Amino acid sequence: MRSDRNTAAPLGLKIAAGCGLLFMHLPILLIFLYAFTTEEKSYQFPPPGLTLKWFAVTWDRPDVWAALGLSVRVAAISTVIALVLGTLCAAAVSGSRFFGRETISLLVILPIALPGIITGIALRSAFSFAEIPFSFWTIILGHATFCVVVVYNNAVARFRRVSGSLVEASMDLGADGFQTFRYVILPNIGTALLAGGMLAFALSFDEVIVTTFTAGQQQTLPIWMLEELVRPRQRPVTNVVAMVVVLVTFLPILGAYYLTRDGDQVAGGGK
Q1: What is 54-260's CATH superfamily?
Q2: Model confidence pLDDT, tens digit, residues 200-252
Q3: Which residue of 67, 82, 143, 206 has the smallest Cβ count within 10 Å?
Q4: Where are the domains of the chain?
């Protein structure tokens, strides 16, 4: 009997899939193309000429480096906070049964389910009520609210696949809680945490809406790009920066995919 895996997809389905992919990715390819155009004030297609000078112009722009540095610092610290809080929440929810467990799980994932503008307004109102001035740390707090969710979702799924007999065996052999976590649990959930951290970093790096409400006068790279489009000067510079954003966010997502595609294979999973 022929396997379903070897059955060819209908031609119409292939065409529809190709059109869908083209619709999603053609705008990104146009961004790359306009980074090389010789026209600096408008988006002409086809470009009147191609040049590499905008990469040098972008390299010499201090405002680009300042925005890039701020985005990297915010994403890195937000990711660390998310890894700690998300892992602890996942361990508590998956490792024990208690009243209100599902409610707590819902509350943890709620920030990423809400529209970003709602989260932004709520955070801005809270900071204003507490008389906390908008700064580098308010951006981090805003980003951490949804980065925790990404880490939590990855960690809780992996925690639930780890066999409880492994933890029991470790305790029976005399290991304390920290040793059990370091030598038994962490090797089993490590790739899930790394993937969650990568996704959290990418999500934080290109976040716009929550940042708008929590940044004050500071500019992360996406905010800088938005303002450059509103008040354009040297438009191809914006496209060069957009290429950087695409690469910085694409690589962690790709890495997370490869790290988690075999996530069901954990030690003791069949015990």
Answers
A1: MetI-like (1.10.3720.10)
A2: 888 888 888 888 888 878 888 888 888 877 766 667 788 888 887 787 777 77
A3: 206
A4: 54-260
